[in-house]
Request: fold
Amino acid sequence: MKRIIRATLAILALALASPALAHPHVFVVVNSEIIFDAQGRISGISQSWTFDDMYSSFVTTGASEDGKPVTREKLQPLAEQNVSDLAEFSYFTIVKVPGQKIEFAKPQAISMREDDKKLVTLTFTLPLKNPVKADKAFTLQVYDPTYFVSFDFAKDGVAMKGAPSGCSLSMSQPKPLDNSEAQRFNEAFFSGLSPGADFGIKLASRATVACP
Amino acid sequence: MKRLAFVLVALALLAPDVFAQARNPFSVGISEGGGAATGLTGWILAQQQHFDVLMREAVRAIRTDASAFWSLVGLAFAYGVFHAAGPGHGKAVLAAYLVANERALKRGLVMAALAALLQALVAIALVLGLTTLLGLTARHLRDAAQWVEIASYAAIALVGVALVWRKGKAFLGEWRSKPQVASRFICDAGDDPAHVHGPNCGHVHMPDPAALGGGAFDWRGAAGTVIAAGLRPCSGAILVLVFAAAQGIVLAGVAATFAMAVGTALTTGAIAAASVYAKAQASRFATLRTQGAARLLSGLEFVAALAVLLLGVGLLMGA
Reply:
């Protein structure tokens, strides 16, 4: 009896310990611009996402001719497709203002290009349905909660465009997973409790805009 | 007990996977599960990530350093071992099928190996066939991969239909069967009234082999299960192949894909062995069954078969 229990538990452990499994297959370096309107309100976010070389080669496969970078025209259908698919994931772009629900309008200025290092960059602008004042902290994060895509801001990867004077931008980095965290995973496994880790969110940096 | 083990294994393996179905905008056409990385998974995830990064580096290095080829093959193998350790519905169906039907460890291992080989061949056929031979683009590749994925879901649903059919018959048979002598078990040597076995006599009360499909080797069920488990390629293999092709070292990509399959076969083989072992262990205690328990377990087994069917149908509808 003990042996069945052990065999069954071994299999159960394999299964139950694993809610849904993804590790990043796609790595994106993010450059975001926070756009202000004439009244000094934040009116949109402009995104520029550069893919890693492996995913870039997937994007351009079969499309490149005689080794030259693929033209924007050829990449346009894929760019449009990507951005329309992104809607369901709220563009992996999470903006928050205390006490307000922020919604995006239809994305604009969608394009995709391949540079001479064969890296592909997707750009698009997300207008806010209702522009917001940034006198309370306005935060921006870019992440994929499923962690299939790993997003990282480039160095100085967030900028403000047309910001009124006195507005400040600061970045906060998540702490990298350390040994104690790994330890916690271990203990959580054996006690059957989830530490509630969500990698995509856990590893996402946060940009905070504060205006007077 | 055997049946209870089947039910537990099948339900446990199937349940977590149902929630992993959103297709990422940047997928290569295959839905990879997503969500919280907890427990053992967190560790498996970290290992995969580790080998994935090294594998990419090896592909980049091969053009200038031919010895990187062997690192790539080794890394791809390790990646396969860890990638397969996650819960895939393919594996779930394989395990469920084995616990339900298979008594031979060797066959279980062969099925796991064939499923892994099929997975590699599909990835290679998709990438080389569509992009290298036909010159199609990423969007076509994505669409084709999606269709392959849908076909794999259909295969799961079909295996589910077959299981429901058989388990349904077995369930009805169990329900209609006459009550047995409660605490005593009369064996083949029935003419001798003195020959009566106690509960520990070592005789195994097997369910009707025909109802379980366990008489002759059910090659159609086995083939269907291999297809259901192996048809869907993994994103990692597709990406490595495309990347290698873009670097002009497509054969290295093919070698890496097969190495990944060997690693995958090792892990799924272990799961297959555990399934067959769990069943063998459970069978030894089957003599303790009473008819009420038999009916209950038969019903639960039917429910588990239904779960395989519902998984297939659910995946199809979500696709």
Chain B touches chain A through 71 residues (CB under 8 Å).
